[in-house]
Amino acid sequence: MKLDKTKIIYEKWEQLSNKKVKLLLKDGSEKIGNIESFTHGTNSFIEYWILNKTNKPFNLLIEDGEWIKSSDLLEIYFYEDHSIIIL
Amino acid sequence: METKHGFSKKVTAASLLVALGIIYGDIGTSPLYALKAVIGNRKIEEILVYGGVSAIFWTLIIQTSIKYIWLTLKADNNGEGGIFSLYALVRRYGKKLVIPAVLGATTLLADGIITPPISVASAIEGLGMVDGLKDTIIAGNNVTVGLVVLILSILFFFQRFGTQVIGKFFGPIMAIWFSMLLLVGISQIFLHPDIINALNPYYAYEMLSQYPNGFWLLGSVFLCTTGAEALYSDLGHCGIKNIRISWIFVKTSLVMCYLGQAAWLMHQTEDFLNGRNPFFEIMPDWFLLPSIIIATLATIIASQALISGSYTLISEAINLNFWPRVAVRQPSETKGQIYIPSVNYVLWFGCVLMILYFRSSEHMEAAYGFSITITMMMTTLLLGYFLRYRLKWNKFAVWGIVGLFAIVESSFFIANVAKIKERWMFLFFELGIFMVMYVWYEARKIHNRYTNFTELGKYSQKLAELSEDDSIPKFATHLIYLSKADRRHHIESKIIKSIFSKKPKRADVYWFLHLNRTNEPYTLSYNVSELIDDKVIKININVGFRIQPKTELYFKKIVQELVANKELNLHIRPDGSTKYNNEPDFKFVVLEKYLSVENDFTIKDNLLLNGYKYLKNMGISDEKAFGLDKSDVITEQVPLIYQPITNIELKREDYEIANK
């Protein structure tokens, strides 16, 4: 069965207390922010990551974050433990 | 040991009788029309009669005995069978397996509307042979059609009361039916014993290869096995052993009856059938009327099995998210028996339409069977996955088996394609069922893709603070949300918004209830996670795909257990009414999503989501579907935003400049 890397990212993200990440996208752009929520998909465990520019301790405008498709990700850097997952 | 339907799985005389009544109605009534359809208006000659009965015998061996009785019954999903149960067993091995499952179920339902009229019409038309009724009962005339419509209408009308009482007679009636087939068949074989030679497969080969257009006769031969798929669907009622053992008797009776009909064809003197039905021709004169009565009862039982099977199929489709939620009722105390009014009306309308359109069983024979070949091919495909991945059979053996049945069933399919011109109206019906399943399934996938989850832990402290904030009026003692989040720490963002935005909903205890539909048919279990003691509790209830969820009932039972185990304190009512009524106050919140204008999606997604909305409006409400209709329920409309429009550049203008 094909390895679902979005699940690996998710399991890593779930364990972290600091959700700040740096995302490198396939179009070469970089995004920095906090992943606060996500959506599940059918082709991959996580379809979208929702990235907020700032870390709000209590956020009610969850949709306000930027929706980033898992398939657009090239790599993800976690600030808490300086680890990188390459997709 | 009992099946989930309350029948015995042990092999006893009674359980075998039950199997006869439930499982074999469809396949058991095929002798009424299968050989007659093979002969049709053709000249009665040895190559056709021997070849026809030989092809029927080998079809029963390959398609029914080997494929269904031996192989497919192995695909037993905790005692349950049927294409959706099989799909539930293998779906983790391929995302595209949803297509054969939906296609198979669609075609099974579609051909289902022709089984009752063809069976009942075949039996009633036999009355035309009874002295005194010859001029009254003529296949296709208004009296015959009216009688069939009347019988079918009565059958469908009584569905709402269940089969608890009359069901007890199904087994004995079918035992009489099969005994009749056996004895009458044998009596004819004695008149032309050479017919036994027709069991040699060479005769089938000869007919298919040498008889003019012989291959196309497979379309009629196939009618002898149309009930094989139904046999698998009803697995849960009787258990494998009962089915396999009773099949020995059933098959012997069927083969003897077909051989008896063939023997009669060989020793009778006319060149053509001229409207005669070999099935009734082999009956002794004195037994003709009783045989027609028994045949009519058998066809009613066959129709009943098909109707019950359709309810089960739709109920499974609802629970597997292939069908909009519609009212599902339990008509009697019999375990597992359900009645779906909307399906009943559609089936009744379809069956009546069929008999009014085709008018006689002969015309229906020309249209029947095409869809079932598709169902069987889809079952073969799913079965291949089951044998390979669940039973871990050698891949070459699996390829060999799937290949063999692919050849056999493709041949039947091609031979049945000729029937399309007779059954073009079915295509609309099939397309309709398929589109409902497709739109519902795909739209739900889109919904799920944009359902935003967040960490419950992040908000649990805020929930605790809100709960204890006396400055805010209490909304409920126990506030319960239905959640799609299957993980302990997750929750939909919409639920958090519902609690905190506008007027915050203060409650003593916040419950988040997740119903997890399992791949097993009858699972019913739960687990509890208390994120904050007595304040924020997540419950995961595992419900099998054959169970109608009764959320309120499950929830109250869980609460009772938690209180009994001293894991939970029941809090007082917010309005101080506890002294008058010590039952805790539970308030359920159901979030009903609507499409927000803030969307930007493709034409396809747009069509799917609008179709979904339309279908949803035709079904029952969420609170009824979750069994909350007796509870204190608040339904909140929440916008569902797909593909939110981002990067809005909203510039603030200087007031003075703007007013210059």
Helix and strand content put the structural class of chain A at mainly beta
Total number of domains of chain A: 1
Number of DSSP strands of chain B?
A: 8
Strand fraction of chain B:
5-15%
N→C terminal distance of chain B: 88 Å
- Cα Rg of chain B: 29 Å
Strand order of the largest sheet of chain A: 4-3-2-1-5-6
Assign the CATH class of chain A: Mainly Beta
Query: In order across it, which strands form the biggest sheet of chain B?
Result: 5-6-4-2-7-8
**Residue ranges of chain A: pLDDT <50 for 5 or more in a row?**
none
Within CATH, the superfamily of the largest domain in chain B carries the name Amino acid/polyamine transporter I
Shape of chain A: globular
Subcellular location (chain B): Membrane
Family (chain B): Belongs to the HAK/KUP transporter (TC 2.A.72) family.
GO molecular function (chain B): potassium ion transmembrane transporter activity; symporter activity
Main location (chain B): membrane
How would you sum up this structure, described in words?
The complex is a heterodimer of chains A (87) and B (660). Chain A is mostly beta strands. Helices cover 13% and strands 44% of the residues of chain A. The longest helix of chain A is centred in the first third of the chain and has 11 residues, at 5-15. The two termini of chain A are 17 Å apart. Chain B is α/β, with parallel strands linked by helices and 660 residues long. Chain B folds into 2 domains: 13-444, Amino acid/polyamine transporter I, CATH 1.20.1740; 450-640, no CATH class. Helices cover 54% and strands 10% of the residues of chain B. Chain B has helices at residues 13-23, 25-28, 34-39, 46-71, 83-90, 98-112, 115-125, 142-157, 167-189, 201-210, 218-221, 228-233, 235-238, 240-267, 278-281, 288-319, 341-358, 361-365, 370-390, 395-417, 424-449, 457-467, 493-500, 551-564, 603-618, 622-625, 655-658; strands at 452-455, 474-483, 490-492, 506-518, 524-532, 536-544, 586-595, 633-640. Chain B has a 6-stranded mixed beta sheet with strand order 5-6-4-2-7-8. Chain B has a two-stranded antiparallel sheet with strand order 1-3. The longest helix of chain B is centred in the middle third of the chain and has 32 residues, at 288-319. Chain B is elongated.
